[in-house]
Structures are given as structure tokens and as C-alpha cells.
Amino acid sequence: MSHHNYITGTTKYMNPYVAGILLGTVLLLSFYLTGRGLGASGAMKSVVVSAVDVVAQDHAGTSGFYSKYIADGKNPLNSWLVFQVLGVLVGGFLSGALAGRLTWKTEHSPNITSRKRIMLAIAGGVLFGFGSQFGRGCTSGAALSGMATLSLAGFVTMMAIFGTAFLFAYFFRKNWI
Amino acid sequence: MGPIIPINDISTELNYLIAFLIGIGFGFALEQAGFSSSRKLAGMFYGYDTVVLKVFFTAAITAMLGLVFLNHFRMIDLSIVYVNEYYIESAIIGGVIMGVGFIVGGFCPGTGICAAAIGKLDAMAFLGGSLLGILLFGETYSLWEGIYMKSYLGGIKLSEVIGISDGLLVLAIIGAAVLMFWVGEWAEKRFQRPDITKDI
User: Fold this and answer.
1) Is the ipTM of this complex over 0.95?
2) Which helix H or strand E contains B42, and what residues bound it?
């Protein structure tokens, strides 16, 4: 029974259009309740800012980037997005448990080793983390939530992310296919 | 009248509880869609699996259509709904860097968190890298501040730029999405990789 999906019954994953409507409904609920959409990189920024604040308080206080999140003794971890991301961890875990997908695994193409996959994941993470700060949000907060409010920033960020990934896909094909 | 929390006096504790519950829904939907698998996500860029396109656009349309209707029935005050602020250069540069990060790393922050939750070690490495990347931006912020703050256009909407109503724009996006879904379904047959899709 380890691969039996208790949600869909037979298929491994939910029908993508149904999953999209589910995701869109959660996003709409977020707008209706809070006036803002979903996010992920914002919570990771909170983690970084509070870590820097603990290790080097003076540096954090004078930096043009960190200081705005810790002004007046604010704790950056006391934020809406941090609690929302904790929920993402729980929600993802619940779904994985109900679908029989909980397992320690490094997923990679047979063309590359696990070690190379981990290195690439770290490198990609560094780029994505850096870019998410430059672009004021990631795929969730800038592209998806931004598009839902029809913001120009959302459409531009979405096209820049996916357009660039398509352009570079050829050069990284060996890592995936 | 929504948005409920900014309009009413909601306690911080309840606000955070709502954040947590919304997050559960977010993570659950992402994982059920298969966004916890990097090879499934990467399929978007090689055509063998276009679940990213289908889920992303169905979700965006559901939410934008919902907002248009809530506004029409005066159930939400759109003036206090956050519209992302547009800075021309930083949105494009940030997006391009994220695009490279996506094809190299195989995740974005949201999907990475979701995949880490079910035990994917590559996702945990990705998230560690993301924290480093954010730190790197923070430490080098003074180098980028000029271009980061350049060409501020505020929270402008695409509909305002084109000069059409929100409803008409949503209709056009739905039309474009249906066309893209059709291309996506075609691509999954044209570029099918049964050896990969049976693994993911």
C-alpha cells in the first residue's frame, strides 16, 4: 500500500487542473481574508535577517537591507509569511503521507550522480534566493500572487522566470533528460 | 466585506493561525499537483511534463476570476488588496536570475519547501542554497541599491497599462491559457519520456 494515493484513489498525483483550482482557491481565500497573496521567499528572508541579527547585531542594524526588518526591536520571525510557510511544510507533509510519498530521496537524472545533483541544487538555490530578493518575491509572491491581482510586476516577473528557464534549458538538458 | 483581517480588528494570534492554515492548503495543493518532484517540474522546459503550466495558470485564473467577481458583488475592497509594486529593472533582472536558478536547481522556494517536507534531500540542499543567496544579496545590497530602486512605477496593473477593464483582461488571459494548455497536452505527447515519467 505504500504507493496508494488516498486522495485520488488511483493516480499518483491529482489531476493538474483540479490541483490548480485548489491552489487558486487557497490563493483567493488568502486575498479575501488578508488582502495579500501567498509567499515563500519572504519567510526565508525573515530567517536570514534574524540569523544575521543574532550573529552581528550592529551590522544588521546599519545595513540598508536588514535594518528595515528589525527596526524598533521588531522580530522578523513574527511575520504572517513565516507562519504561512510553516503551514506549507505541514500541508506538504500531510499530502505526501496520504499519497505514500514520504521517503528520504535525492531525485536526479540517471546521467548525473546524487552528489552532482546536490551541488546543482545548492547552486540553483543560491541564484533563486538572490534573484528573489532582487525581484521582490519569487514564483509564489511575485509571479503567482502578482498575476492574480493583475499587477504588471507579476506578469513581467513570471515571463522573466519562465522565459529565462526555457532559454537556458538546452544547456542544462543533461542534468534532467 | 473583505479583506476580513485588515478591515476588522483581528488579534495577531488569530491572524497567525489563519496564516498557518492557509499555508497548509498551499503546501497540500502543491504536493498533490506533484510540485514536490524536481524532475516533474523540470519537465516543463523539455515538454515531457507540463504540470507546471497547467497548475500555475489554472490557479492564477481561479484567483483572478474570484477577485473580479468578489469586487463585482462588492464583497471585497480591492483598494486595500496588495498589488505588487513594479520597478522595471529589478523585476526583470530578479526574474532572469530566478529563471537560471530554476533550471539549475529544479525548484523554486515554495516547491522546495514542499518537497523538503516529504524528504527530498535535493530540495533541502536547494533551500540551504536559497538562504545563502538571500544572505549574499543582503551583504552586497549597497552594490545593487541603485538599480534595485530604479524606475518605480508603483502598484500598477496590466489592465491599466493596456487600457482595458480587469474583466476583459481576465477573459483574454483565460483564452491564452486554454491555448497554452492545448500546446502543453500536445508537447507531452510529442516530447514524451516514459522512462522519466514512470519514475516521477
Assistant:
1) yes
2) helix B38-46
